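$ fold --in a.seq
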Amino acid sequence: METIFFYLVALVAVVSGFLVVRCQSPVNSALALVNTFFCLAVFYVMLYAPFMAAIQVIVYAGAIMVLILFVIMLLNLGTEARKRYTHGVVWAAIASLLVLVNVVFFIKRGRVTGAEGDITDYLIKTEGHTELIGKALYTEFLLPFEIASILLLVAIVGAVILAKKDV
């Protein structure tokens, strides 16, 4: 039953991902991206990572998509999307097919290393996902976390500057 559910959610995620690229309207494309994010959250739940699923929904499907929709509305991309040319679609499809063949090849020929990390099931059950992620985020990965926040701030400022008519 879990396998059937996985394949169903995977099919919805792949179709939504295709619609992100293929939709004519940027708003419809953004809504398909939200659906893809929700499918990814379902995958996290299936992997017994409920905290990551909640963060996926709150941060990506919520906050990031609101920012993307604001940028779409500020830049008025609805008229620009109609002028797109489709001559690159064939080359993108060929490149995607090559990447898919490579991924399938490496998955079929690869093997598990058997390496284990410091985090065990017992540690997760005693401390919890949230506390372990928080400790790692604010100790080992503090610099990348801060760099990502600065990049997001720069992107927001850039979107506002691009959206202004009289710069």
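$ fold --in b.seq
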Amino acid sequence: MTRLEELWSIVSSIPRGKVAGYGDVGRAMKHPVSGVLIGKWMHQCPPDVPWWRVCGKNGDLLVGRKDPRVANLQADMLLQEGIELVDGRVGIEHFFVP
């Protein structure tokens, strides 16, 4: 399994209605990596992997730094899963550590 395949597997294991932080995902890898690197790799995410379930450690929708439209899409996807945002952030009660 490649590192990206491992990443997609971890992200796919995040349950519907939950999120994980980039750093949490990085620490869950067989050979842990930083959340920054996870963020870079996530730009290559296949369409069938629930990328919207990964956010910043404080619940921030960090994809908005590159493209606010993608942050809006992420927010919409999270809302469809029952995750409410407060001031544009996911509440800690929705966090899942893989």
